[in-house]
Automatic annotation (TrEMBL):
This is Nudix hydrolase domain-containing protein. One of its GO terms (biological process) is ribose phosphate metabolic process. Residues 51-187 form the Nudix hydrolase domain. Keywords: Hydrolase. It comes from the Eukaryota. One of its GO terms (molecular function) is ADP-ribose diphosphatase activity. GO terms for cellular component: nucleus. InterPro entries: NUDIX_hydrolase-like_dom_sf (IPR015797), NUDIX_hydrolase_dom (IPR000086).
């Protein structure tokens, strides 16, 4: 019987046990020449591309349905909650961010599409982390009668995909937040941009 995920302990992580991240003590000189110290977390998995990860904004086109996108729901231990996010993942050592975006979309959602845009390298939380990423837009064109594809999740991945019409995405994210889910900032900002462009400009 499936059970709800939960955090069962939080302990300090010794540096020699950290597989994915490391802490850095950054010494830098400010605009007045004063030497300062900054603490940051850094990924240990950055490959040849120089990009840690990709997030995928999907546009699903269907002959008789409104344009839609895909969000995923998964439990994230650092925040102790189900998070609502873009499909996303790390860029493998030997691949490009563009290739990673198409691969990750298929693995996490089952959908296959064509890359139509890849952003410059952008940062997610520059006050705390060196992590960077690129935002991809992948278009999926469906035909009448196409069945929902099967996900290709790795062992230990528990990801629920949700197809949401673009014109109701902002309201759906607000509803998820009221339910106690945590909405990823990148997804919320993207949805808010669509919403504000439609309602305020």
């Amino acid at each position: 019987m499936p059970q709800s995920p939960k955090v069962t302990a939080v302990d300090s992580l010794p540096a020699n046990e950290a597989k994915w991240i490391e802490f850095q003590k950054i010494t830098w000189s400010d605009q007045t020449g004063k030497s300062r110290i900054w603490e940051a977390a850094s990924r240990k998995t950055r490959g040849k591309s120089g990009v840690d990860a990709v997030a995928i904004s999907t546009i699903i086109r269907h002959p008789s349905r409104p344009p839609s996108t895909i969000v995923i729901l998964q439990y994230r231990p650092p925040v102790g909650a189900i998070c609502v996010e873009f499909p996303a993942g790390l860029v493998d050592e030997s691949e490009t961010p563009s290739d990673a975006s198409v691969r990750e979309l298929h693995e996490e959602t089952g959908y296959k599409g064509k890359l139509s845009y890849i952003s410059p390298t952008i940062v997610s939380d520059p006050g705390m982390s060196t992590a960077n990423m690129q935002l991809a837009t992948v278009e999926v064109n469906l035909k009448e009668g196409d069945k929902e594809p099967e996900q290709a999740l790795d062992d230990g991945e528990f990801i629920e995909r949700v197809v949401v019409p673009l014109d109701s995405l902002f309201e759906r994210l607000e509803a998820y937040s009221k339910e106690g889910k945590m909405v990823d900032a990148r997804l919320f900002h993207w949805a808010a941009g669509l919403h504000f462009a439609r309602t305020m400009l």
